[in-house]
Design brief:
Layout lengths: L2 H56 L5 H65 L3 H6 L4 H74 L3 H26 L28 E3 L5 H5 L1 H4 L7 E4 L5 E3 L4 E8 L11 E7 L3 E11 L6 E2 L4 E5 L9 E8 L3 E7 L7 E7 L4 E2 L9
Antiparallel strand pairs: 1-2, 2-9, 3-8, 4-5, 4-7, 5-6, 6-8, 6-9, 9-12, 10-11
């Protein structure tokens, strides 16, 4: 057998053995992926069911029992979400393992093809270097020489095929590496999501503990707490209105994006509006709180520990906590972001502020977590949109809490904009 024929036969045996091992590994890994997929589907169904129960509970009359039930359901939902993310991480791990196995097999095949090409080139070079006359003088017949020439032609054709195969394997390898890199990026995002969910779970449990401690599990104490919040909010609105009348801020004409242009993204993943902008039924029914000026933003249902996201890239103009001035009266923990299009946004009633003044944020970046700080009779996110030219972070005295000073975003009455004019269509 010629050297080239020996190389080809050895390569075929090795390739068969490698393929058999790779197929077995792929089968086991695919089984793990399928199991993860089944678990993921089941967890998603359970989370959807809990969300349905949570939504129904949030629509009930505000009682201590409904609040506790809502918190329990939220804790269960976040716990299931953590299990779901862990299952998704396991699935990504298995997918990466499968792709890595394919990369290893392809790399081995590339090495084998390169060996064959080298051996073929060497054989061709050896035979091409032998002069025809010398071979004849050596006893070779014309017939054997013609056979050898035919063999050389076949080897050259085979060599071209091997080079083509090598190029194909390289393309496959590069494609597999690209897919693996994306899977690793997905895995990193899932790990970050898992950390956020764990933080959210801690917040939800802490909120539940605080509520039970404050109310001592008594409905009368819970209703008294709500009444206290409403009274503090009414005093705050009077303070704010008095200060706004002295501001002298004006909205610059032409500084705002067109209404309906959708420059902002939703600040929560699950969108359910619990109170709209302006003279809503709740605002109208509570003139002592809103002073007839209506609701200054949009409220989104957001259970304690829900990740809150920046609606657009921008710079954090400031953060704060009005509860340090006057508990239960206003925004609680808030974040104020100025964007590049003439708009600024506020995120209020947070439990955790995850950004700092002067920090640049990107659209969709998690900037904090929701809760019930400030004036919030139930867990939600207050999301407000301001005209940047008619708003600022300012300080003014609190009449409700004597001797204290609020520091928070304020604006001319014309600077408070309807967020739904700039958010995506529902």
């Amino acid at each position: 057998m010629s050297p080239v024929g020996h190389v080809l036969e050895t390569r075929a045996d090795t390739a068969t053995s490698t393929a058999t091992l790779a197929d077995a590994a792929d089968t086991a890994t695919q089984s793990q992926i399928d199991q993860s997929s089944a678990q993921i589907a089941q967890l998603k169904a359970e989370i959807a069911q809990l969300q349905t129960q949570l939504t129904a509970t949030s629509k009930q009359k505000q009682t201590l029992q409904s609040a506790i039930t809502g918190l329990n359901l939220n804790i269960q939902k976040i716990t299931k979400s953590i299990s779901l993310t862990n299952a998704q991480i396991a699935q990504k791990d298995s997918e990466i393992k499968k792709i890595s196995g394919g990369i290893s097999t392809t790399t081995s095949e590339i090495g084998q093809v390169q060996t064959e090409v080298g051996a073929s080139l060497q054989a061709l070079a050896t035979q091409d270097a032998e002069p025809l006359a010398l071979e004849l003088f050596g006893g070779a017949t014309l017939s054997s020489l013609f056979d050898e020439e035919a063999s050389l032609a076949a080897i050259r054709i085979g060599l071209e095929q091997k080079i083509t195969e090598l190029a194909t394997l390289k393309t496959t390898l590069q494609s597999s590496k690209t897919v693996a890199q994306q899977k690793r990026a997905d895995l990193a995002a899932l790990q970050q999501q898992l950390n956020q969910q764990k933080q959210g779970l801690a917040i939800a449990r802490d909120t539940q503990t605080q509520l039970l401690a404050v109310t001592k599990n008594q409905e009368s104490n819970y209703q008294a707490l709500i009444a206290q919040k409403q009274a503090q909010e009414a005093k705050f609105e009077q303070d704010l209105l008095a200060y706004q009348s002295k501001l002298g801020l004006k909205v610059t004409a032409g500084s705002l994006p067109p209404s309906g242009s959708h420059p902002l993204a939703w600040p929560v993943d699950s969108v359910r509006i619990t109170q709209y902008f302006g003279n809503t039924p709740f605002a109208t029914q509570n003139p002592q709180i809103y002073n007839g000026h209506g609701h200054s933003g949009v409220d989104f249902a957001a259970s304690p520990g829900t990740p809150i996201k920046a609606a657009r890239s921008g710079v954090v103009l400031g953060t704060g906590n009005t509860d340090l001035t006057c508990p239960n009266a206003s925004y609680g923990k808030w974040i104020f972001i100025k964007h590049d299009d003439g708009l600024s946004t506020i995120y209020a009633h947070l439990s955790v502020i995850g950004v700092t003044q002067g920090q640049m944020v990107t659209t969709g970046q998690v900037i904090g977590y929701s809760d019930t700080t400030g004036y919030a009779t139930g867990p939600h996110l207050h999301f407000g949109v301001f005209a940047s030219s008619g708003s600022e972070i300012a300080s003014f005295a609190s009449q409700g809490c004597k001797g204290k000073t609020y520091t928070m975003p304020v604006g001319d009455l014309s600077a408070y904009l309807n967020p739904l004019s700039y958010l995506p269509s529902i």
